[in-house]
Amino acid sequence: MLDIPGGTPRALTPEGTAGARVTPDGRFALVVDPQRQAWLYPIAGGEPQKLDLILKANEDVLSFLDMQNLLLRTDTVPVDVTRVDIRTGRREPWKQIVPPDAAGVQNIPSLKFSADGKAYAYSIFRMLSDLYVVDQLK
Question: Which residues touch 29 (CB under 8 Å, ≥6 apart)?
């Protein structure tokens, strides 16, 4: 963190943490430590809050729906989106994102939801190839 007029920068989170999803009220950054444990770090400074949430190996934080609910996504195709209550850690399957033409789709690298969660957009990484068969080649 660094004040815009200047000053000394300070670390918001410890080394080894990843992610920087900011809560809708702008007061906290949600980060994940090397053990995949989720934490809320106060942006203004202070002690972090450990959440009752450990991300699975194929999950990433997608976004906040509101101050109480967080969206997680898998790195698979189709993408499974899970809603998590950050106070209790309760998980609930929310949406599955399936490209209408999944031929050659290797990955869905970018997925964004509207603020109300009713609309979304995504990009795909597709790799297509051709196979030629040659008979009686001499």
Answer: 12, 13, 19, 20, 21, 22, 23, 40, 41, 43
